[in-house]
Structure formats: C-alpha cells, structure tokens
Write a structure and sequence with these properties.
This protein folds into two domains: 15-143 and 152-201, no CATH class; 205-269, no CATH class. The protein has a two-stranded antiparallel ribbon. The protein starts with 14 loop residues before the first helix and ends with a helix. The chain has helices at residues 15-26, 42-52, 112-115, 189-198, 203-228, 235-243, 251-262, 266-269; strands spanning 70-73, 79-82, 92-95, 107-110, 118-121, 127-130, 170-172, 178-180, 182-183, 186-187. With 273 residues, the chain is of the alpha+beta class. The structure holds zinc ion (ZN). Zinc ion is lined by residues 56, 58-59, 61, 110-111, 113-114.
Length: 273
C-alpha cells in the first residue's frame, strides 16, 4: 500500500447529486432495505482507475486483465462487525455508515481477496477467513460515530491510502513478507490491524510479491553491474523507473528494495523512492 493523493476536485460527475438522492430515499427505510448503487457506477470506477491505476489500493495487486475490482467503502455502509478486545464480550453487529454510502472520500478500489470474506491461507500456512468485509476496527470503540454523522473523533485502525502514509506503519522484508513497523519499539497498531483484516500477509499474495521482488532485484543487479563497468544501464534502468511508478503493482515493496540496494546511486540515476 502506498499513499496516494485524492484531489479535492476529483469527485466523479453526478456522484454528489445522485448520491444525495439515493440517501434521501433511504432515510425512511429500515437499514436492511437500503440498497446502494450509485457508489459503484461506471464514472466512479473510471475515476478511481484514472487516479490510482488498475490496482488494488490495499495490496497493490494489478486488477487489469483479471478482475474489474470492487468499489470498496472504507467505512462500511451497511453494517459493522465489532470484535471487542476482551473475549468476555461476543462479536456483535452495529449499523454501518450509511450516510457515507456514496461519499467520494469513502470509496476505494480493491481486489476481491482484500475486500470479500473468503477462506485463504495466511502467511503461516493456516487457513482463515480473510477480507475486509464489514470490519472497521477503531483504537477506541467508545468513540465510534454510530449515527452521529461525526467521524472525525474516530481513530480507525485500518490504513486509508488517501489519508495515512502506509510506509509509516508497514515494513516489507526482502522475501515479500510484510510486518507492522515498530514505532518507539512497539508494532504499529494500524499496521497490525491492516495486515490482519486485509490479509496483506496472505500466502498467495506473499508469493506474488516474492516473484515481483525477483524481477526488481534482477534489474537492480544489472543496473549496478553496468554502473561499475561504466556502461549505460539502458533498459534495466528503465525497468527500475517503471517499478517505481505509482500505478504499477507492489510499489511499496519496489521502493524498499531499490532504496536498500541502490541508495547511493539514486540521485545520480534520477530515481526517487
Ligand atoms: Zn488487494
């Protein structure tokens, strides 16, 4: 996951008016009967793709050629499943953030494996249900904005790539694994929750990142060899530039690898991580 800028004036055409109409109709309905459609209209999907690329904004896997991707609500619109920190209280369901159903800042593009609940192997080989679904954990549950329309008081534990800088909370290892970054010696709570709920360390994703890492490292090796021998790195340098483009897959991981092995060459090569 990388930080991406969502320009203030980027709201897709018609979303504000149509979203407002939809919300007005739903206010009189009981929660179960509310059906949200405007958030996933073609202009919304197109705008998300145009701004952030055809990739999942959570795991950075490419959607292009494999799936259309889910227009995902950062704050769930229908309901929220809350798991209290103490096991003495059972998980329970509370109403969702229905008033944010068609709000542009609440919409992200995600792959189905990050977004939908499905049994998948995690990093340790153990299968568990992975996917954001209706989870939206907070640092302090007592501050949840249930129907109060005030969300600023909340401290979400899931990283939002348009608000947080994921690099402050996640750290990638050379083999593609991801861990919560230590902050003052303590793993980032946002990093831990995002890895757990979004499945950022799920087995198949680790394999994909590892494969990507092999390509990046090959380009790094070839580029460094060329520099040592006084040759033009040519296509290998072009590959490194491409790996760092924000709309490419696994950019956070590419940045880590390129910085680790090439930090002394970055300025001379005009690369920025
Ligand atoms: Zn994903």
């Amino acid at each position: 996951m990388i930080k991406v800028d969502r320009p203030r004036d980027s709201t897709p055409p018609d979303l504000i008016l149509k979203g407002r109409d939809e919300l007005r109709k739903h206010l009189t309905l009981e929660p179960k009967k509310r059906v949200f459609k405007e958030y996933s209209s073609e202009p919304v999907r197109k705008k998300l793709t145009e701004l952030f690329g055809r990739k999942c904004m959570f795991c950075e896997s490419l959607l292009a050629g494999t799936q259309s991707g889910d227009v995902e609500h950062y704050r769930p619109k229908g309901k929220v499943v809350v798991y209290p920190k103490t096991t003495a209280v059972a998980a329970h369901v509370i109403p969702g953030y229905f008033w944010l159903g068609a709000k542009w800042p609440n919409l992200l593009l995600a792959c189905s494996d990050c977004n939908r609940p499905r049994t998948q192997d995690d990093f340790d080989g153990n299968a568990r249900v992975i996917g954001k679904a209706n989870f939206f954990p907070l640092a302090d549950e007592t501050k949840r904005a249930i129907g109060t329309w005030r969300v600023r008081q909340e401290e979400p534990l899931l990283l939002n790539p348009c608000i947080d800088d994921p690099a402050e909370h996640l750290v990638f290892l050379e083999d593609g694994r991801v861990q919560a970054r230590l902050i003052d010696g303590v793993p980032s709570a946002k990093g831990e929750a995002s890895i757990y709920y979004l499945g950022l360390a799920r087995a198949e994703l680790l394999q994909m990142r590892a494969r990507h890492g092999r390509m990046v490292r090959a380009a790094i090796r070839h580029t460094i060899s060329a520099l040592k021998e006084g040759r033009d790195p040519g296509a290998d340098l072009e590959d490194l530039e491409a790996f760092l483009m924000p709309k490419e897959p696994y950019v956070a991981f590419s940045r880590m690898l390129i910085y680790k092995y090439m930090r002394q060459h970055l300025a001379a090569l005009g690369l920025s991580v």
